[in-house]
Amino acid sequence: MTIAHNGLVADDNETNRAILSGSLKKAGFGTLEAANGEEAVRIAREELPSLVLLDLEMPGLDGFEVCERLKATEETAEIPVIFLTAYSGPQNIEKAFAVGGSDYVTKPFHMGEIKARLSVHLQLRQAKKALEETHAQLLHAQKMESIGQLAAGIAHEINTPTQFVGDNARFLRECFEELLPRLTQATSLAEAVCNGEAPAELAEQLRSGFKDADISYLSEEIPRALEQSIEGIERVAAIVKAMKEFSHPGVKQLARIDLNRAIHSTATVASNEWKYVADMKFDLDSELPHVLCLPGELNQVVLNMIVNAAHAIADIVGDGGEGKGLITVTTHQDGAHTEIRITDSGSGIPPEAQARIFEPFFTTKEVGRGTGQGLSMAHNVIVKMHGGTITFETESGHGTTFIIRLPTTQQGQEAA
Ligand SMILES: Nc1ncnc2c1ncn2[C@@H]1O[C@H](COP(=O)(O)OP(=O)(O)O)[C@@H](O)[C@H]1O
Ligand SMILES: [Mg+2]
Hints:
Radius of gyration: 35 Å
Number of strands: 12
Bound molecules: adenosine-5'-diphosphate, magnesium ion
Shape: elongated
Largest sheet: 5 strands, parallel
Number of helices: 12
C-alpha cells in the first residue's frame, strides 16, 4: 500500500523552506510550503499532506499552536508533525510530544537525519492505516461469523413450526376429503326435504357416513390443528420480524430506538444460542426514553453479551439436561444515562482473565467457540462510538453482570 506523498514545510525562514523542500523532493515527495502558522493550518486542511515539517518559532501562531489545531480537527489529526527548532530544551521536547507531535529535529539540519526520520514516520503511518483496515475487516468478519451462526439457529427455529404447520395442513386436507361427500349428501337431502320429499334412504346414508367420519373426533382435532397452525405461523412471523429489527442492514446512522424492543428482538434472534442452557428473564423499564444510537452496532453488542452469558452458563450446566441457568436483562433510566444490565448465573470470570477480557483476541474458549472479539467490539461500540461505559461485576462460580451505560442524549450528536 502506498500513500500519495505530499510534505508540507512550514517555516518563516525562506532559506530553511527551500532547503527542507529540496530534501523532501529528493525523498520523493511533492512539496507544499507555508511561511507562517495560519498558512500552515490552512494548507494542511486543504491539501491533507502526508506529513508536516513544522518550525517551532514563527510569528503569529507558533508551531505548538499549529500542531494543536491540526490534532483537534478530525481530518488532520492523523498527519504526523515533525517539529524543527533551534531550541532543544527538555521542556520544549516534552511539549512537542504533549501537543501531539510525532518527532523533533534540532537545527542545524542534517539532511540524512531528516530523510531517515521522514521515512520512519511514513512507514509508521502506513502501518497504522493497514492496521486500522485489518481491524475493520476483522470486526466485519466477526459480525459475519455471528450472523452465519445465527442463521443456522434461525433456520432451526423456523423449521419446527414450519414442519408442524405442514403436518396440520395435510391432516386438514384429509379431513376435508372425508367430509366433502357428506356435505354433498347433506345438500341433496336438504334439497329433497325442501321439495316435500322424505328420502329415508338418503338420510340413512348420511347418518352412517357421518358415523364413519367420527364427527366428535374431527370436531376436536380440526380446531386444534388450526390453532396450532396459527400459533406456528405467528412464531415464524415473530422471528422474521425480530430478524428485520436486528439486522438494520448496512445503515450506519444514529437513530432513536426503543431499546427494550431491540433487546427483545436480539434475544429472539439468538434464542437458539441460549434456550437449551438458560431461561431468559426480562426486567425492562417501561418508561425508558428512546435512545439515540447506532442500532445495528448496539444490537450486535447485546448479542455478544447474550452469547457470552450462554457460554458461561453452559460451562456450569453442560447441555442443560440437569437444569438450566438464568440470564436476566434489565434496563433502567438513571439520570442522564440509560443502563442495560446482562446478568448470568454462569461460571464467573476467572481473576486472572478479568483485566484482559476487553483486549482484542483475548479468549478462554477453544477455537470455533470463541474468537476473543466480542467484548473488544462491544467496548469499541459503547465507549468510542457512543461515549458510554461498559463494566462488569463477577463472582467465581456464581455468575457475571455486564453493565452498559449510554448517555441518553449524546452531546453533539443530537439529531437536529
Ligand atoms: N458472561 C461471561 N462470563 C464469564 N466469562 C466471560 C463472560 N463474558 C466474557 N467472558 C470472558 O471474556 C473472554 C472474552 O470474551 P469475548 O471478547 O466475547 O470473546 P469470546 O467470547 O470469543 O471468547 C471470554 O473468552 C471469557 O473468558
Ligand atoms: Mg464472545
